[in-house]
Amino acid sequence: MTPPLSLTDAQEGLVRTSLARLLRDPDEAARDFYDRLFAADPDARALFRGDLHAQGQKFIATLDVFAGDLSRFGTLRAAARRLGARHAGYGVRPGQYATVGDALLATLAARLGPDFTPEVREAWTLAYRLLAAEMRAGEPGGEP
């Protein structure tokens, strides 16, 4: 069963505000993210056969769209599931979602510095878990 959206309005605001700060330099943020991801899971690098800069732009754009529609996540559900199905086709393993989440949190912590408070971490953790659950539901054999 898909988990219900459990972010409060305040948590949604924290995600949006912190993402806006991250987006001040999206290319640098994407480079930081992928450096952290590939350091944690070197095998993941093989999943990115194309231009990593373009992939970084897609990643940042996905975060931006997702954060912008947190309060209406149901409208993003189908897109998240299609993305999950596409990722499964590329060979993404289920355990890699946790590694991506860890790399995202580490990137946010590094880029936001002292503004990456426990409350911001909790909000992003919940938000990412929601997105990852929807993406996993889109995998072949994932829950409807």
Give me some keywords for this one.
144 residues, mainly alpha, Globin-like, Globin domain-containing protein, plasmid, Globin/Proto, heme binding, FAD binding
Structural class: mainly alpha
CATH topology: Globin-like
What sort of overall outline do the alpha carbons produce when their principal axes are compared?
globular
How many domains, in number, for the residues? 1
- CATH hierarchy: architecture: Orthogonal Bundle
Number of strands: 0
Number of helices: 6
Helix/strand order, N-terminal first = HHHHHH
* Beta-strand content: under 5%
Runs in which pLDDT lies below 50 for 5 or more consecutive residues are none
- What is the CATH superfamily label? Globins
**Sheet having the most strands:** none
On the 0-100 scale, what is the average pLDDT?
86
Helical amount? 55-70%
Highest-level CATH class: Mainly Alpha
- CA gyration radius, whole angstroms: 14 Å
- Could you give the distance between the termini? 8 Å
Pfam families: Globin (PF00042)
Domain Globin: 6-140
GO molecular function: FAD binding; heme binding; metal ion binding; nitric oxide dioxygenase NAD(P)H activity; oxygen binding; oxygen carrier activity
Organism: Deinococcus sonorensis KR-87
Short synopsis of the structure:
The chain is mostly helical and 144 residues long. The protein contains six helices and no strands.
